[in-house]
Amino acid sequence: MSVFTTTDYTTDKLTPGQRRVMLAAVDADGQLPDGANQRVLNNIPETWARTDAAAGGRFLTAEGRAALAPLGRFSLLARANPETGSLPGTTGHSDMLALVRDGLAVLQDSDGRPVPVADRWERGNSLRITERGRRLVGMPLTAPEFAERHPVGSRAMWKREEGEPARPVAILGWPLANGTVYVLPVDTRLSYAACRDRPVPAEQIRPAPQVPTTTVADDRRNTMPDRKPAPTLDDELEALRGLAAAVVKPMTPGAETWEQVKALEERATAGYELAERFAEFDQRATADRRAPKAWSIGRELSEEQVAAELEKRPELRALGGMVATLAQMGMAPWQMANLVRKVQAHQQAGAEES
Predict the structure, then answer these.
(1) Which residue spans within the chain are E strands per DSSP?
(2) pTM for the full predicted model
(3) pLDDT tens-digit profile of 144-173?
(4) Fewest C-beta in 10 Å: which of 136, 247, 261, 315?
């Protein structure tokens, strides 16, 4: 895992000494300074700075970087415009003070001159990421090759998995050190949740296809773009099945509860993606008169109904609490059981080959 990737945001507060030493490490490519106070160094846990005997020093971990910019500050810095340095949205006053205090961001006027925090609300003043802030979140200091192919603000296609339709997106930044780049889905048919900006693997970004134009032979010589049709409901349903299989694939039948929970947490992103895609599919299927009505029907299962389904189909126990969620999304229990059996058969075949 990259030292710039973390989903664990600590609530432990840094002491002034720890913060000073760890910020100095950010400026030194993540290595804690040898000349720092030894007592402060000893009080920095290994979870924040791991010892690397081969490299001869201690280096910040993902948790250590998150401790320097907890909660939403790390995400705010990672979503900064790499060309202008401006931070997105409205920054809370306490977050602004902390970012400026630690040298992770600077308040500037329209001419790029630093201004005091007291002038935050003056017209033209804005908060911008600093070089230290870029180093903290793994943002390149200079434009990478990716920026030549996909400039900030340009359109591209996000190709997630083979066999799934690519999604048009707007590029919001440069690839970070963890290999992700922030994009914004731009399909007008998406729900609000699906239109939020998000980090995706940079390797999944493809150039946007050139829209061909057809010339109309009339006196006005108009040109009309040939719009690419949206994927059919059948194609989208097949893609949904693939996403659902990806969500439950890491689950092991008969495993301990904590193992199942850990597997679900690791697949949280895939679960959110499945929910968003199904919501889009549900809207299209509901509006399409030719689509089977069962496609747009979701059911609310009580705890007793879930228990009855688990007793009737023991293979559903691998899904745990996902049974009720998948039922709300329109999947029937027999569909869930077929999906689990398919994944288990695939895992068993892989185990036999190995």
Answers:
(1) 49-52, 57-60, 105-108, 126-129, 155-158, 167-171, 180-185, 198-201, 205-207, 213-215, 223-225
(2) 0.57
(3) 999 999 999 999 999 877 777 888 899 999
(4) 261
